[in-house]
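From the pipeline queue, job 12 of 40. The input is one protein chain; the requested action is below.

Action: predict structure.
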Amino acid sequence: MNKFIWPIIYFCFVLLLLTFFMLFFTFPEEKTLLTSFGVFLFSFLLFIGYCKREKIRSHVFHPLFLKRWGGFITEGFLFFCIIALVQYLAYKNPLSFDATATKKNSLSEVSRNIAQALPSDVKMEVFVTKNERDKYEDFLNLYRVENSKIDIEYIDIDLNAPLAKKYNVTQNGVIFIVHGEKRFRVLSPSELEVSRNMKKILREEKDIIYYITGHRELNLHDEQRTGGSFLKGIMLNSSIEIRFLDLKTEDFPSDAKVVLLWGPREGFLKSETEKILSFLERPESRMLMAFDPDFNAHKLQSFYDAFAPLYGLKMVNSLVVDFKSQIQGYDGTVPLVREFNKDHFITRNFQGQVFFPYALMLQIENRADWTPLFESSSYPYSWGEMNFGEVVLKEIVYDEARDIKGPIVMGAA
């Protein structure tokens, strides 16, 4: 029986060594697994060497050692090199075949052209837990089929919390397209969004967002809980350049395509309102606006009144209350949204739940141009509260004559 023990041990070692090489070239991003496997394999080798130290010493220093074993060692080394080379080529040059009639397992022609045109140092960083990785791997590997130089790194957000915090990753499935100093954050793990961000690499111009100031908007430099530094960090980590714009003294630049207006607390001059409305008439102009209810005065009412008849969306200076879906302890003033519009590309892949403290009510007057993204619960649990005195006194009740029955739209596009 003893004479079979060492052949079995040698066979197990060779098998483990082959497995290590296969894992190394197939899953190079699994650094923790490979390091642990390598340490175990090295320890195994030291164990064999220690047990066979006398025999190894007698063979190595034997005059005929090279003549007896040189050819075998060379052949073994070449064999492992060939195996490693085959694994490396298979990883770097993946092949796939889509047998479905609708080609649902293939990229569109536009995406294939974008992938093929990418430079050699493009990398995709995928922040995803190990359990969810398979959902992204098959899809993203389609890009490597078109361009084998694309590198994909999967980062476990549970094991790499500091790195996830650095890039403001708070949920599973966040993808970054990286090229040199450029880093683009993919809004949703879909072919449209991945290809759109890859296309940015091929462009010379930067993505720029103009941030309107001068009305006590959210301070992007404020690092407190109520400040906007987190929002600023997300934009900067997505390689978006932020330019501040004061409409009292400046006009919209010619390169302004995307504008952000977030939480103004002071009213707009007539000239500022005219500049904003004029900007919205430009081709390809986009503007993201967020407003808070004004408890003390209707400082923004003139802007609301100018915007609504032109674009069919009315901002109503009221507070959305929701007693069914809310953060407990706030008397319904912090609605909790669990469902988003799955038919709109902005919210199609939204997951989890989001709370909206002191949300403003929106009324869509032209359904052909606007789509609700998320709403409050239905009446009698939710309504638009018009009496801010009740909110201050924490005596919120529905008033048939003044308040507006839910569901209340809180976000629209």
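Job complete. The chain has a mean pLDDT of 83.
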